[in-house]
Specification:
By secondary structure, the chain is α+β, with helices and mostly antiparallel strands. About 50% of the residues lie in helices and about 20% in strands. The chain folds into three domains: about 70-175, Beta-Lactamase, CATH 3.30.450; about 235-320, no CATH class; about 325-468, Heat Shock Protein 90, CATH 3.30.565. It is rod-shaped and about 165 Å long. Mean pLDDT is about 80; it is low at about 1-15 and about 420-430.
């Protein structure tokens, strides 16, 4: 019973303390952490790649602007605009250029897309010949700026080495980078969310499948507790097999301990009965007041030995898991034996019992209780005894034994059950049969009551645990 009580405690444990919950929670934490870290790294890598691509595009546009520029012999810069990107022609298109003369007095040139704005670089940084920076553009656009200084010769001046310097500048709207990054991050979030859900579902399935052997052990223990099996049955994985083997060994050891205890009880009872029989024989050989007193005490001692022997045997049986007894088979054997015992009086015993009714306990204890009741009914019956057994709930069944004898008054029923008194010495027996039945029934968590029978005599009703 210790194994069964531990098993029940395991089943009612909070779900958050289960292995499945811990494994799934651990997988959830690491999945979220891993996906978040991976998403952050991918997002940063994509953003860096888009920015590098954007800078490369600006460099191409700047190279195109420089290639399209020609020096005016009298000073200045002339552009072949057909060689430039068409976006430079559309107002506020997000792509702009400016050519800024270094010497004062020369005009500033800029693209049509700038319309009435000019570009001012904030915190420019040099990278070789190029200058990078940021600027505020039309309509609050944030611009990425790339500039380079170019020197053109002036042929129409008297000085042969006369030159003019200009800063060629190209700027692009960074909203394009932001839009691409935003779209990528959105796709990344959805993709990683689906991936995370898929991983968690896979972990859930893995945990369910991986812990299935433990559930099989749990179900096997439940079958043993309910009396539907005697051992843990089935094949288990290598990690679970030692546990199943140890549990089976523990159950077997429990049965052996209980068996030895019951054997010792029986041996003790047998040892006591032999001296009591000798005392009773000596008292019969020497009649007198002392002999009568001895016989009375010997009879009382015999009844007590029988009483506690039955209780000890039943209490030991309770500690053995997996006990189950088919009620119909046990009652049929008892009825057949008792009909032969009372054949001379012509007692008829009618039995009504369902085939699928099982007692959660040992057959010997059921036979002890039912045998006492049926034998008692046969002793007091005139001609008929009726035995019926039926299920009254999923975990209980009712055994009723009735006779057509004289019955018992309510006050006599209490005396018989509480003190085990014999009300009629002319009827053979120890007088403890009904008291023993009540004791064994209580040990199994059952009940025993006496009442009036429809046949006219006594009705004994026993309610005991059943196997659904």
């Amino acid at each position: 019973m210790a194994i069964a009580s531990k098993f029940r405690a395991l089943r009612i444990a909070p779900k958050l303390d289960s292995l499945a919950a811990r494994l799934i929670a651990g997988a959830l934490v690491w999945t979220v952490f891993g996906l978040a870290l991976g998403g952050f790294v991918l997002s940063r890598a994509f953003t860096s790649a888009v920015e590098d691509s954007f800078d490369t595009t600006l460099q191409v546009d700047l190279d195109g602007l420089i290639a399209a520029a020609e020096a005016d012999p009298n000073g200045g810069v002339v552009l072949e605009e057909r060689l430039l990107n068409r976006r430079f022609e559309r107002v506020y298109s997000g792509l702009y250029w400016e050519i800024i003369p270094i010497e004062a007095g020369e005009p500033l040139q800029f693209s049509h897309s700038l319309f009435d704005h000019h570009i001012t670089i904030d915190n420019p940084k040099s990278a070789g010949q190029a200058i990078f920076g940021y600027a505020e553009g039309p309509e609050n656009q944030k611009l990425r700026v790339l500039a380079q200084r170019i020197v053109f010769p002036v042929a129409a001046t008297p000085q042969k080495d006369d030159t003019r310097s200009y800063t060629f500048m190209v700027a692009g709207d960074l909203n394009e980078v932001d839009d691409e990054t935003r779209d990528f991050n959105g796709t990344l979030i959805w993709a990683f969310s689906i991936l995370g859900a898929g991983l968690l579902f896979a972990v859930f399935l893995q945990v369910r499948v991986g812990l299935r052997p433990l559930r099989r052990v749990s179900e096997a223990l439940a079958r043993i507790r309910d009396g539907k099996a005697r051992r843990l049955e089935g094949d288990f994985p290598a990690e679970i097999a030692p546990l199943a083997s140890e549990l089976n060994s523990l159950i077997q050891h429990s049965e052996e301990v209980v068996g030895r205890a019951r054997t010792h009880v029986s041996n003790l009872a047998h040892f006591l009965k032999t001296p009591l029989a000798v005392l009773s024989g000596e008292a019969d050989a020497e009649p007198g007041p002392l002999a009568d007193s001895v016989k009375k005490q010997v009879s009382s001692m015999r009844r007590q030995v029988d009483h506690y022997l039955a209780r000890g045997r039943a209490a030991g049986a309770l500690d053995v898991l997996g006990n189950r007894t088919k009620v119909g088979a046990a009652l049929s054997d008892l009825v057949r034996i008792l009909e032969r015992m009372h054949e001379e009086r012509g007692i008829e015993i009618a039995l009504d019992c369902a085939d699928n009714l099982y007692f959660r306990g040992e057959r010997q204890d059921l036979e002890e209780m039912a045998g006492n009741l049926i034998d008692n009914a046969c002793k007091w019956a005139r001609a008929h005894v009726r035995v019926s057994a039926r299920a009254i709930s999923g975990s209980r069944f009712e055994l009723v034994v009735e006779d057509d004898g004289p019955g018992l008054r309510p006050e006599d029923r209490e005396r018989v059950l509480e003190r085990g008194e014999r009300l009629d010495e002319s009827v053979p027996g120890s007088g403890l049969g009904l008291s023993i039945v009540e004791d064994i029934a209580k040990l199994y968590g059952g009940t025993f009551t006496l009442g009036n029978s429809a046949l006219g005599g006594l009705s004994a009703t026993l309610v005991l645990p059943a196997i659904a």
